């Protein structure tokens, strides 16, 4: 299966190379950064497996949707506020995250499944079953 899913970039991210001055801030809502979790994609005999690294994410804060051949993963990572220590250095990100992929027609949307285990989301994208060739009998007049 070639080119089954194609990543789509979110409108905003927190990469070190971003230019903060290029982003407009609405007066009505505060500016929020959307992060992009790291994703690995594997091909199997049955289809593709997408693995997303989502430390600190619970199933309640995670949403996975398929619409119009687009697979979208979004949610939120919240840090517990009950810590008494003062934060000195932070690499563990909190806030919103988003990843979106265009699916090919080879993916069977009805059989997509997902599970979250130890901060890793595994999404199985099975192929549409292909019909087997059959011999057609020809009648002679």
UniProtKB/TrEMBL annotation:
Residues 9-21 have a biased composition (Basic and acidic residues). CDD domains: ACD_sHsps-like. Residues 30-141 form the SHSP domain. It comes from the Bacteria. PROSITE patterns: SHSP (PS01031). Residues 1-37 are annotated as: Disordered. Pfam families: HSP20. Belongs to the small heat shock protein (HSP20) family. This is Spore protein SP21. It comes from Thalassoglobus neptunius. The gene is hspA_2.
């Amino acid at each position: 299966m070639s080119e089954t899913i194609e990543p789509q970039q979110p409108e905003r991210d927190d990469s070190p190379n971003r230019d903060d001055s290029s982003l407009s801030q609405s007066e009505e809502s505060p500016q929020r950064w959307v992060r992009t979790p790291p994703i690995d994609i594997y091909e199997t005999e049955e289809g593709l497996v997408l693995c997303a690294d989502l430390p600190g994410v619970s199933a309640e804060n995670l949403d996975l949707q398929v619409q119009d051949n687009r697979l979208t993963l979004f949610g939120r990572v919240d840090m517990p506020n009950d810590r008494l220590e003062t934060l000195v250095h932070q690499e563990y990100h909190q806030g919103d995250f988003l990843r979106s992929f265009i699916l090919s027609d080879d993916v069977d949307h009805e059989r997509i499944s997902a599970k979250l285990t130890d901060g890793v989301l595994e999404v199985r994208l099975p192929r549409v079953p292909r019909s087997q060739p059959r011999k057609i009998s020809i009648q002679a007049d």
